[in-house]
Amino acid sequence: MSFNALDVDLESQKPYSDSPEFDRAAEEASNVLLEVNNHLVTLHKQLESLHTKRNLANSEKVSAKCVSSMDQLGSLFKSLGQLVKELNIDGDLNSAQQFTRDKITREAKHCMQEFADSQDEFTSLSKSINAEAQAALDEQVQSDGSPLLPGKASSQMVLEQDVINNEEFVYQQNLIREREEEIQNIEHGIQELNEIFNDLGTIVQEQGTMVDNIESNIYDISNSTKDAAGQLTKALRYQRRSGRRTMCLLLIICVILAVVLLGIFI
């Protein structure tokens, strides 16, 4: 094997990791978060368009796009919730991994809250459009029948006009019924999303408690270190004082011995 081929093989190999499962889950979660943010931007634009199309027939296509985007986001959030749980299983993480885990968890919770708000906005707007459409149909039914045709209308033309009106009425009713079913499905999806949201909220709360405990332990260690330093300073001062006293005693003993020796020899 040539050296060039060996260099290519080494470059293609993934770097060694102590926690390959954590790294995999973190990378997948980051990719899912990117997709989620892109879909949220699209959903916001679709909702803005839906606000301008208050007519039931005009809003049909935009509403279908909103439902499609929300279905895709719902699937992404289910995957994201599972990945976040995997990231929070292993408690033996270094500081960099803990930072990555906490960042992904909080971003997931923020995106999920944003999605929940968009779902509420869609259901509220759809109910309003449905109510307006139903009121218009009720008003049409209570009217005095089909509008009069200009000139001398034959019974065949009146019959055709009635058929057209009936078909339009059935079409509008079907649209209202479909929109109501969409709203029910979205509301069911909101319930499923709330379960994931509550799980993430619990995880974030536990992380906050862990951070508080770590900060408390650091504070206790700091205080203990200060106390130990103070005790050490006191011990050093006492040792110095004891050393000085010992020297004084030694000097006094030397003086006394000198005097005694001088008295003996003199």
Automatic annotation (TrEMBL):
T-SNARE coiled-coil homology domain boundaries: 173-235
Disordered as annotated region, ranges: 1-23
GO molecular function, one term: SNAP receptor activity
Record's keyword annotation contains Transmembrane helix: yes
GO biological process, one term: intracellular protein transport
Positions of transmembrane segments: 247-265
Keyword match Glycosyltransferase: no
SMART domains: t_SNARE
Keywords annotated in UniProt: Membrane, Transmembrane, Transmembrane helix
Gene Ontology CC annotation, any one: SNARE complex
Domain of life: Eukaryota
Pfam families to which the protein is assigned, alphabetical: SNARE (PF05739), Syntaxin_2 (PF14523)
Family statement: Belongs to the syntaxin family.
Protein name: Syntaxin PEP12
Source organism phylogeny: Eukaryota, Fungi, Dikarya, Ascomycota, Saccharomycotina
